[in-house]
Amino acid sequence: MNRLIIIGASGHGRVIADIAELNGYTDILFLDDNTAVQECGGFRRIGTSMNAPEGDVFVAIGNAAARKRLSEHYMDRHQPTLIHPSAVIAKDVHLGPGTAVMAGAVINPGSTVGRGCIINTCSSVDHDCTISDYVHIAVGAHLCGTVAIGENTWVGAGAVISNNICICKDCLIGAGAVVVKDILVSGKYLGIPATLKRE
After folding, report:
1. For 161-188, how does the pLDDT look when each residue is reduced to its tens digit (9 = 90+)?
2. From the candidates 12, 84, 127, 142, which is the catalytic residue?
């Protein structure tokens, strides 16, 4: 069977469907809990998120907690790794199941990317980086060499993480931020250099 069930009928879901077609899927269907949605990117929505029919499953939801919950719900199903043909990925890079690598992204040698990650358009991950599960490296963000990113962290659009930096789990690195020292406390980090935003 050459069927992919995409969970999340949104803009992100449309991008995933495009990459899936480029990866050879010909039968693409969507699930979404918004019953007003009938289609996404020209593909039918056929039901809600917890009721996937037979086929491979891909969770196309930006929210890390929801992505994790649904990925774990379908742990017994094949969750492919989807890579846009224009991405550049070194031969020794490991990519976890349910991870998407978008157009123009670069992942250099020695790096590891976990389950359910998003390596978004024109972002880069340099050598020997470790990206934990359910991390989102947003559009145009750049990780220098030997960076470690903890689970559920979002690195915002255009952010830069300097080399040899560790960022703990459950962080949000704001768009355009520059991280120049380790982040050991979960939270929202903004600015140049990135600092913890206190509510």
Report:
1. 999 999 999 999 999 999 999 999 999 9
2. 127
